[in-house]
Amino acid sequence: MKKKAPVCPKILFRLLITVLFAWQATVITQAYTAKSYPISLPKGTIEGTLDNGLHYIILPNDLPKHDVEIRLVMRVGSLMETDRQKGSAHFLEHSAFIGTKHFPKHQLIDYFERQGMKFGRDINAFTSFDRTIYWLSVPMEKGNETVMDSTLLAVRDWLDGINFDPERVKKERGVIIEELRGYSTNDDFYPLKIGKGRYAQRMPLGTETDIQHIDNHTLQTFYNQWYAPQLATVVVIGNIDAVKTVDLLRRRLSSIPRKPSMRAQIYPFDYPKGVSWQEVRDSMQTSTKFEIIVPHRTTTVNSIASAVQKQRMNLLIACLSNRLNALKTGCDVSNNWYLADKDHFVLSFSAKEKSELLHQITSTAREFRRILKNGFCPGELEIGIDSRLTHLKPDTAQHLSTDLCDDFVDYITAGDRPLRAPKDIETVRISLRKTTNRQLARLLRQLIHNLQQYRLLAYTNPCVPNETPLTVKEADQAWQIGWQQTAENYAFHPQISDEKPVDIPLCLTTKHTFDARQIANQTQYADLGVTGIKLSNGLRLLLRPTLDDEQMLFVAAFGRGGTADLTDRDYRKYHDAVSYVDMGGLEKINSDMLLTVMNQEKLSMVIGEDDYWHQILASAPVQKATELFNLIYEKMCHPGLNRTDFTEIRKAEADGMGKETLLEKLMQHDADRLINNRIDSLTGNALSRIRPMLTKNDINALDIDTLTQYYKRLFADPSQLTIILTGNFPPDKISRIAIATFARMQRPNGAFSFKDTPFASPTTTYIESFNNGNDDQTVLNYVFVGNYEPSLRNSLRLKLMRDILQDRLIRILRERENIVYSPFADLYYSGRPQQVYHFRLTISVKDANRGRADRLLKDIIDELKLHPVSVAELNKMKRSFIVTKRKALSDKAPSEWKTALTSLIRNDESLTDFNEYTRCLDTITPKDICQGFADDLQWDKKILLIKSKNNDNP
């Protein structure tokens, strides 16, 4: 037997080290694997793939409980188009709504509108570079297999049954061209940010030339090639039976033939190396603006590891912002997803003079170099981490089905998963706490490397006289100067708050005694879930508890009386009274102390006055109801006075009289704003704007005691006051606190009495033109004004008329004549005190079609005056109203309930009628609608406001 050779100590040591490294690697791998598991999808999600390759996601969700959200997500967009097919992906999306195998012509839209849906809101689609998404928000009770089956049949048709009728395709060209004419990216620097590659060459809408070249054969070829089940995902979320829904989906969609093996090609979204520069001249700007945009690869958040990486990038941005703000460099830092696989890391600068701007760039570069070298200071990084952790908390709230659909679209198209589950969040938090300077330096170093490889420079030139514009060379030199400078070690001085909790003043904490005798009457509106309480002092309380996850109480307190109720003399005397008095805090608490208390106790309150109403909006945690109600009471009845601030602000306002502000300058160049203001002045919505101009003497004559007296006469009168309470609160407890607090209010001496005088509507035609339209497009704004008797029934009648007008504009101007893309009919009305309504019809047409559009609109209105709409059409509209109300006013919509009840009271509509909404709606007949058109839309009394560079009237 051979003897074993002795082991050399050096070899033994190396073996030991190797074993240790292997063990360490195993531990690291296990830890990394633990962090790399996928982020959880929402609980209850069913995900699968049919044999033909179609991917589906099903999720039961009862918020809202009467609707089901359905999406068809095609991983197909304009990037897939050949040169000959440009614009086809978007044109194909249009074709999906104008005729399919089982829904010829417009039957698809008609079917869904009969369910109460609206085209554009509940039935819609959009096309992007890499996706086309069709969405349906379907009113559906749980277990309604008939509607679900028909909906999935429509989805099947979109995948495998779109008809491309040559004549219909030809007509649709006009619609899409009008859409293109009205399209804007709303970003002056879009050409810079979109790059020079395939994305810039494949804009989803295409060009007018592209659209003119598309025919039914082009569309059929693109459809046959790309609309394959392997590139499709169907998402169904709502109050559904998941098992039955999967079964229905399989039965309807499994037989769609699988197409030859194919995958959507992925095109890179890249930029040219070096500097890309764009200058925008804007003489309306008062400062020079400059951005350094650094494109870099985004992080797809689909695993715990990638979520940690994303959070660390956010942490880096926060730490950079804190450092640069502390040094007052004048640089704002941000990082956001832009498009495809790219984020934009942006350094934003703004300065009055070019030299100051260059100094900001130099200072920022120097600081970046110092951070790369030394990292962040002890305490600096920890503050950043703590700040991020405050934003990183589990989200256990129930989400709307529409929001969940948006999350799944991101998951399907980009791979992102929403980070919400407590277990996932806690794992990310643990890793984030352990973030080191070295890890942040690695991220920053990569950003700087990208900056050196390619950067986008966006320069807004304010055209300052006698100043040469900024150049690329100057900007790069300023950065290089800073980068090459050496800086001393940064001395971090954390801001230590010496603020201590303050005692809440007694006037806010006092609990008042409830007395049932303070209640004059109480009404339950069972269908609405609203309680109405009238107090003996005339104040009206409306309570609508909701089931939202936040334990918050929301208050809207409002009453009649505003600036338009004043005579010209009193308007000058009480100018801006509410704003001046508001800055004085409370009689028993000065404004600074009040702000401190409100921040500490999480109380919020804003106060305002418009033409005919004054109001207070406030909110607080439910457990702070006593403090909140006392705050509102004190603000209405016992406002404070701040004579020093009043004198200073009055002087500043007087000194500014006659000086044109930047907003006023912008207004003179914004045709849309000018048109809106003109409509407001002609329809009674802005009477205070047509007052005599205030003078410097008027401002100097203002007296704070006189303003306060007016304020109290306005706000402290309970007989004019309605208070609406919404939120997740115990109604009995909160109503008792509210009653005890506000029953103390008594009508002040000299309280106002307001007359509800109807607005005098125009008696002749008014036509005005505005410049600044598109070169070859005219925007026609037709306005019809009139008076009406306020009631819920009349409001609903006007709304039905609006929707019928919208239907006719689409059916005739868009679908039959093909001269518009998105005509719009809107309705505005004010029941109290003006008793006025106005319809606004907005039509964007090619300049050559102005006269034609005018004649067609007159024909539409004349037809509606002569012939009542059918019962079936009217019932379809009514069904839409019921669905809309049910969708908007759910048990988890405190803000929407507050808005709806406020509108109801301000328009002098009955809560009893609103409680019997369907019955009220059913009393409106086709004859009522026909008579409404005859009475309410007078062609010879129309207002026509035209936005165009060709200002000849049609």
From TrEMBL:
<keyword id="KW-0645">Protease</keyword>
<keyword id="KW-0378">Hydrolase</keyword>
<feature type="domain" description="Peptidase M16 C-terminal">
    <location>
        <begin position="218"/>
        <end position="382"/>
    </location>
</feature>
<dbReference type="GO" id="GO:0008237">
    <property type="term" value="F:metallopeptidase activity"/>
</dbReference>
<dbReference type="Pfam" id="PF00675">
    <property type="entry name" value="Peptidase_M16"/>
</dbReference>
<dbReference type="GO" id="GO:0046872">
    <property type="term" value="F:metal ion binding"/>
</dbReference>
<dbReference type="InterPro" id="IPR007863">
    <property type="entry name" value="Peptidase_M16_C"/>
</dbReference>
<dbReference type="InterPro" id="IPR011249">
    <property type="entry name" value="Metalloenz_LuxS/M16"/>
</dbReference>
<dbReference type="GO" id="GO:0006508">
    <property type="term" value="P:proteolysis"/>
</dbReference>
<feature type="domain" description="Peptidase M16 C-terminal">
    <location>
        <begin position="702"/>
        <end position="880"/>
    </location>
</feature>
<dbReference type="InterPro" id="IPR011765">
    <property type="entry name" value="Pept_M16_N"/>
</dbReference>
<comment type="similarity">
    <text>Belongs to the peptidase M16 family.</text>
</comment>
<keyword id="KW-0482">Metalloprotease</keyword>
<protein>
    <submittedName>
        <fullName>Peptidase, M16 family</fullName>
        <ecNumber>3.4.24.-</ecNumber>
    </submittedName>
</protein>
<dbReference type="InterPro" id="IPR050626">
    <property type="entry name" value="Peptidase_M16"/>
</dbReference>
<keyword id="KW-0862">Zinc</keyword>
<dbReference type="Pfam" id="PF05193">
    <property type="entry name" value="Peptidase_M16_C"/>
</dbReference>
<feature type="domain" description="Peptidase M16 N-terminal">
    <location>
        <begin position="57"/>
        <end position="187"/>
    </location>
</feature>
